Amino acid sequence: MRAVIADDETLLREGLARLLTDAGVDIVGTAGTAAELLRRVELGRPDVAIVDIRMPPTHTDEGLVAAREIRESYPHVGVLVLSHHLESRYALRLLEEHPERSGYLLKERVSDVAVLVDALRRIDEGECVLDPTIAARLVRRSRERGPLDDLTDRERDVLSLMAEGHSNDGICRALFLSPKTVETHVRHIFMKLDIPQTSDYHRRVLAVLAYLRG
Amino acid sequence: MPRATLLAAVGVVALGVSMFSLDIVRSDSGYTPASVSAQREVAFLLAGWALIAVGLVSWWRDPASRFGALVTLAGLAWFVAEWNNPANPSALAFTVGLCFYVAYPALAAHAASSYPSGRLVSRRLRVAVAAAYVGAIGVLGVAPAIFFDPGAAGCEGCPANLLLVSDQPGLVDGLERLGVVLGVAWAGALCGLMCVRAVRAPVVGSVVVPGAVVLGLTTLLFAFALERGFLAHGDLEHRLWPAQVAAALALALGVAWTWLRARRLRRTMGSLVAALARSPASGELRDALAATLDDANLVLGYRIEAGLAPVDVHGRAVDLTGLAQTALVADGREVAVLGHRSGPLDDPALVEQVTTTARLVLENERLQAEASLRIEELRRSRARVVEAADAARRKLERDLHDGAQQRLVSLSISLALVSSAHPEDAGLLRAQEELRAATADLRELAHGIYPSVLVDEGLAQALLALREESPIVLELGALPKGRFPPEIEATAYAVVSELVDMSRQRLSVVAERRDSALVIVAEPDADPLDLTSVEDRIAAASGSIAVVEHPGEDRRSLHVELPCEP
Fold this sequence. Notes:
Structural class of chain A: alpha/beta
Oligomer: heterodimer
Distance between the termini of chain A: 36 Å
Number of strands of chain A: 6
Distance between the termini of chain B: 77 Å
Shape of chain B: rod-shaped
Strand content of chain A: 5-15%
Number of helices of chain A: 10
Radius of gyration of chain B: 44 Å
Low-confidence stretches of chain A: none
Structural class of chain B: alpha+beta
Strand order of the largest sheet of chain B: 4-5-6-8-7
Shape of chain A: elongated
Largest interface: A-B, 32 and 40 residues
Order of helices and strands of chain B: HHHHHHHHHHEEEHHHHEHEEHEE
Radius of gyration of chain A: 17 Å
Order of helices and strands of chain A: EHEHEHEHEHEHHHHH
Number of strands of chain B: 8
């Protein structure tokens, strides 16, 4: 798998590059600014771009803007946005516009190379990825007594993984369940939450996120 | 003698004098411009009578002022000017005429330039008026009369000159020539001085300006007589005479006009007193003054602090640009300043009356203005404290994110690199776990310090984010889309955040932009409700909070209004 890394911290950028190289990812370029990132993507044609959301000049959401541009100009290049923001708004904004090949992880995940590589692989396979902490926050958040209370504990686990962007296969692997069991759980969840069923995997993720956030 | 009797006596004498003069004018044979036609005779009488009438009335109205007497004298002098006419049947009157035939312009100048007190206000005017009397009555009147024998001068029908001591035609010629030259000087000087006074004190203009015209015409007559060496009735004098009548009438009308103005002033003050008697609420004094002075845009300000703009009763700065300004001064101290259209307050008497009448209310409003100003200063300083605290928290949040957290992430990568080279080292793995936990802790800490989403994306997004982590049910209704000033957003967020902490299980919040304010309606389920800290924040942003009870429904809502310019 080929990847580029964009982060304005040189030390972090180069460290991450070495870490991923050791894990077998082919780093075809690194960038310190959004413009440089776009050039690296154009030249290196990576499978995934890893982008820090805070980049010069304003250090707010330049990375997110660049990620969006990559998804629009290079549909085959996935993006993984790294952020300090715990709130779901930036993540949802990215995933709503480009649910395929997009991911949003908290910055601190980068040291856990297994999680990082797993996210990159899933994005490369066309899935979307949402940080488990953010997904858990949405599932857990206080709300009126409602359909969520009717879910069983197992169904809740499945819902969390769906919110993180896992496909049924991914959920199977994560919970050690058979595909048939997962399918039943998913069907029950959709029925209880009154979310319209769809065969489209990405639509399903978005519907879950919208339900959780709304 | 009682005043009424004296004035009546003067009036009777004046009537007699005028009739006697009319007789002379009627039997004139070319010595006066007042004769020739019935119109001229009527104009002659009207001008003199008008001056005497306004003189007597002024005298009656204000006996302490010499002005009325001076105008009356000027009117008499207008008639006496004809008494040196050869047609004068009386030797005594003829002699008086010889002495006083030029007294009218001197008296008119004295009267007009001394309005309204009858005292001359400047040294220059006193000198000029004295020179006028010396020139008109001394050099041109009494002095030549002593040496003038009308008979010897060829006037067969002239009455006798009772003052005659010795016939000296040469001396008389010289004196008259000197008098004419002096006349140009004093009449011109008085005309100029009166013009200056009219410009400096426009309020006395209705009297001083006609006076200046009278003296201007006199200057012209003297100037034309320079070559001839004496005053006489020539073609030019004949043609200028209607202007002299008009100027005399204008002077009389100008005096009458001041009475009308005084009446208006009294009425004005009457309505102001009536308005103030209703003990106006704060701020209504301006309205009362605006109505009294008939100036809707009138601005009433109080200078509380030197160097700062004047403020109104509520402590708000008032704008005086483009307005005429008048200070209301009491006991030598400025109480207030009025911004107004030019005109109505040109009269110093009016300004003084306004100040005296409204003094108590003005002082009271001034104290209120000062108190309001102090309160406003206090509020501003509180807002600054809140803002500074917010800014410090925002900076801390950024520093933690961009500094400490970045370093921890870099460190965790370094550690991961080391760890991958020594996969058997359990201590390294444990360190990595610790570091990960520390990073998560720091993230939570930084997040709680200040919500960066509020700065980046505004109130609505910040409230949605607040809901994601709120330990209670936070129901959000309609939220405003646009942005508000940072301090308003910070206050609104802080208020909702405080209410979340206060509520037991649920809190519903609706926010909207209404006119130029952010209105938040919140329904917390807390009981009792301690709003002290919320109120402090809201007050610092000049906002207001009201608790609305819903009787019979066992609920109540908080209405918070935060003013902000749209």
